[in-house]
Amino acid sequence: MQALILAGGKGTRLRPLTVYTPKPIVPVLNRPFLLYQIEILARAGITEIVLSLSYQPDKIEDLLGDGSDYGVKLRYITEPSPMGTGGAYKFAADAIRETTVVFNGDILTDVDISSIIAFHREIKSEATIALVPVEDPSAYGLVETNAEHRVLRFLEKPKPEEIAKTGINTINAGIYVLDPSILDLIPKGENCSFEYNVFPSILERQKQFYSYILKENYWRDLGNPKSYLEAHHDFLGGSIKGFKIDRSAVSDIATAASVDKTSVIGAGCVIKPNARIIKSSIGPGVHIEERAVIENSVIWSHSRVSSSAEVRNAVIGRSCHIGRNVMVNEGAVLGDKTMLPDYSQT
Ligand code: GDD
Ligand code: MG
């Protein structure tokens, strides 16, 4: 079994964080996000993974290399320009010989992929799509199924009236198991979307198209800053299980500083006396000065938070400078190298 991770989107909704860092490798608790996906694929015994890239591919390849550090074999396929989700799968056809797990590269989940594969095989499906119930399906692909788990309808980014009409809330979780026969439905060399083209075409041709509902699993699309920050709150609050959190980094933390047990501190940080860190993720090489408070926040590497500044429910990019007595308030998302002069408020 192989896997293809769709990781070529521009990550526009996650700007400014994705201006210099492509979405697949934004740090989550100081680990490039894709490593969480690679970990759950490896857990299901899938070690041959193709990364389908388009936006800033070199940064991803330079960081993850051949995958040997993570016990998998990574192969990179870069589109000259974005081909769409289905087009990207077709573009990788030469690397796909068998049934493949296709994974949207921005989904954080603890699902057991092998149970979806087992279902796909048992029911003799050609295309299986994982579904998850959400409160508001409008930002996703709404999927209607019958009692036998057959997919009946696929509605990408449904309008409120369409959602109301169907009365369902199960959406495409961005994890598919696809037989190579699905490749034949996709035109070569053209832009093509799974959601708008391939799935409707599978339905039209009445192929074996089934759904697998995720029930007890954690699931989140990390596509915007709010969701990115909430993923950290979920991790640090203990609602995502099964991934190990690395708290072993060596930093210079003053004895008079207070860092709660849930927070994660990267290597080489300097945390000065009377600084307070609560339920936050602090990247490597960050300086936090006297009396600064960081709460429910994420700070990327090499930023500085000066004395008596307060950062709450916010995300701070790489190499930012937060001046003295600055207030960074709920919802702030600061791009790399942001400079906030003393006493600023966001
Ligand atoms: N290689 C490549 N080329 N990858 C792409 C391209 C492309 O042209 N376009 C998008 N991707 C990747 C993105 O990087 C992302 O990982 C994944 O495909 C999905 O794209 P998003 O832009 O994040 O889509 P979405 O979140 O609006 O909707 C999709 O995901 C939802 C679940 O989170 C759809 O699949 C929905 O149906 C689904 O519910
Ligand atoms: Mg997405």
Give a short overview.
The protein has 346 residues and is an alpha/beta fold.
Could you walk me through the main structural features you see in this protein, from its secondary elements to its overall organization?
With 346 residues, the chain is of the alpha/beta class. Helix content is 19%, strand content 29%. The protein is built from seven helices and 29 strands. It has helices spanning 34-43, 57-64, 84-91, 113-122, 160-166, 194-204, 225-236, and strands at residues 2-6, 27-28, 31-32, 48-53, 73-78, 100-104, 107-109, 127-133, 141-145, 151-156, 170-178, 209-213, 219-221, 252-253, 258-259, 264-265, 270-271, 276-278, 281-282, 287-288, 293-295, 298-299, 304-305, 310-312, 315-316, 321-322, 327-328, 333-334, 339-340. Strand 9 and strand 10 form a beta hairpin. Helix 3 (84-91) crosses helix 6. The radius of gyration is 21 Å and the shape is elongated. The model has no long low-confidence stretch (mean pLDDT 95). Residues 6-9, 23, 52-54, 79, 82-85, 88, 104-107, 140-141, 156, 171-172, 174, 195, 221, 223 line the site of guanosine-5'-diphosphate-alpha-D-mannose (GDD). Guanosine-5'-diphosphate-alpha-D-mannose (GDD) binds at residues 6-9, 23, 52-54, 79, 82-85, 88, 104-107, 140-141, 156, 171-172, 174, 195, 221, 223.
